[in-house]
Amino acid sequence: MSEQTAPAPTFPPGFLWGTATSAYQIEGSPLADGAGPSIWHRFAHTPGRTHNGDTGDVACDHYRRFKDDVALMQQLGLNAYRFSVSWSRILPAGKGAVNPRGVAFYDRLVDALLERGIQPTVTLYHWDLPQALDDAGGWLNPEIASWFADYAQVAFRALGDRVPLWATLNEPWVVADGGYLHGALAPGHRSLVEAPRVSHNLLRAHGMAVQAYRAEGKHQIGLVVNLEPKHPASSSTQDLAATRRADAYMNRQYLEPVLSGAYPAELAEMFGEAWPAVPDADLRLIRQPIDFLGVNYYTRGVTRHDDTALPARAATARQPQSVYTDTGWEVYAPGLAETLIWVRDRGGAGDLPLYVTENGAAFPDPAQSTNGAMEDPLRVDYYRGHLRGALDAIRRGVNLRGYFAWSLLDNYEWSHGYSKRFGIVHVDFETQRRTPKASARFYADVVRTHGAALFDGEALSAPGAARA
Ligand code: FCB
Fold this sequence. Notes:
Number of domains: 1
Number of helices: 15
Bound molecules: beta-D-fucopyranose
CATH topology: TIM Barrel
């Protein structure tokens, strides 16, 4: 075996092992202690917007049970946790007066994590824009970049002494595509003209928050994007062109401005008159040096031409041979290493530290076995495949520093309400009882053995086994 492909025995020392969550999906008590409503509060309370009319009013009741949840993380042997701060808990009107009781919640959470040896990793924006700011135009109002930077500064000052890793935005593509183009997510707009303007303001907000961090912070700040390798469904010219557009729209729309200072040329072409003028000064603002990139990876997109699917005129083709999750996503484990390597070699990241900031799968939970154990073999397989992929990427020289499973708990899956379960820990939403599933036990074994448990039961020399 050549030097380059020699298997790394295990994940490197100092690797972060965590789970990821977001505020609206788990906290509950959205208006407690002086918090203001967010767009998700309004959206979920609007009839017809979410499955079953489900809201995040209670969710996992994490706002009141966070200590138990942190204890659970420690029991699983995790050394990191990625959560998001709710903007409208800290600034109920989105700007102006700070709500000390909102800040105090995150203070207590951070302290509880540190007491148990778990590194906090904070995402500033995971989709729950203060409703008051949406009333003022939300992500369509260019002023939002400075509103976001001001909020970020409050968070940096309150928590920055104890939080070494910050992410500005979670998945700007989903904010724009789900929230402003297709309307399945808050605030539920459907507009081809709005979507690229929102994307641009998200990136400007990211840039200003990074600048604010440089003035305040001593550690690291980055961006979290969702990436999906786009593979052509056939070798036809049409499918190949659709694949390039889909890739530009979902993957390169955010990475190229942040890492290289320009939007992919395909975007102006595919949005046509809906594409906004982009001043050079904005591109300079967006291209702030970042300290790491967070990659959320769930699936790939086998892509075919579809004139009706705007803006990329591309649709995802179902693969009959593949396993699909409960959210209709193809399970495609090789895509994780492929994505990380693509980001490094062609996405512009180079040697920038990378984290897998989300990876996981929704499957319906099989019945509890008689001894009370929760068996979720499909999810175990998902994690085994993808964690091997993470190790494979490291073996191929990717500067991967940590991995966060989505998610710690079954939670509020946005417009799907409570119908999609992503947790490695089962939540009984009637009683709030938490029960680790087999996937939690498996993940804990992988963490404890620094990855060796991924190959249990296999001959060490078996092809594909990344263990010496
Ligand atoms: C990601 C989101 C996260 C969760 C997972 C399943 O796109 O960041 O909040 O919904 O998908």
